[in-house]
């Protein structure tokens, strides 16, 4: 198993372990069951309708072959190489150079490009970006993100309830837990879950880069595209940071400690990895 896939498996196991641990701590098997049921309910709507929500937030408009022959040509070529159904193609009216993939599966997917990235890049670079986004669809990253979100939501919900419980619990009773123990766990668990979510997201970006490079039989088109994105300082006007993980690079600036929680690996590191790949 390639190292990045192994990392994803380990991280998914860790975040699942956190849920099982706090569920058992607060309510045994029943606690875990309740948390999972609630998480499923919270995420059912977002799984089925997240693509429509995201496209609306970014004012993305689907474009036909006639409206954007360049994008359709690139996607036709890559979908044949990936053996994927062609996703819907949308354009986001924003000058920030970026792109993202969304949808609930290979047959229900969308790849959106900002006006900024279309104007900035040549065909080879734009094809590298498209290959990266199609890699997310090919690798079922949207499903993985949904699973992680489901478990993380359960952890956050249990922790939220526990913080209220902590103030109503006095000293430790026989077989029970003190208010301080409950409070500490309720604060630490969501932080650990967030860190693991970030690590999973970063790992999937590396895998998508690698998949794109192998599909194109070269890492240079995507490496050159990422260099262009690194040099581009245009800020995203639409949307907000809650959807930053969808994009090929974070469209919103983060400084200081916020960079530790970035959903994307450093662009310099991604570029170096791509250039060093021997296909």
What does this protein structure show overall?
Helix content is 63%, strand content 8%. With 279 residues, the chain is α+β, with helices and mostly antiparallel strands. The chain has one domain (3-276). It has a 4-stranded mixed β-sheet, with helices on both faces. The protein is built from 8 helices and 4 strands; from the N terminus they run αβαβββαααααα. The longest helix is centred in the N-terminal third of the chain and has 55 residues, at 3-57.
How do the helices and strands line up, and which of them pair or pack?
Elements: H1 3-57, E1 61-62, H2 69-82, E2 88-92, E3 99-105, E4 108-114, H3 115-120, H4 123-138, H5 141-166, H6 179-216, H7 220-231, H8 267-276
Parallel strand pairs: 2-4
Antiparallel strand pairs: 1-2, 3-4
Helix pairs in contact: 1-5, 1-6, 2-4, 4-6, 4-7, 5-6, 7-8
Major sheet details: 4 strands, mixed
The parts where pLDDT drops under 50 for at least 5 residues are 171-175
Strand order of the largest sheet: 1-2-4-3
Helix and strand sequence: HEHEEEHHHHHH
The share of residues in extended strands comes to 5-15%
Mean pLDDT: 81
Name the structural class.
alpha+beta
The geometry reads as elongated
Number of helices: 8
Classify the helix fraction into a percent range. 55-70%
Radius of gyration: 21 Å
How many strands appear in the DSSP assignment? 4
Distance between the termini: 18 Å
Number of domains: 1
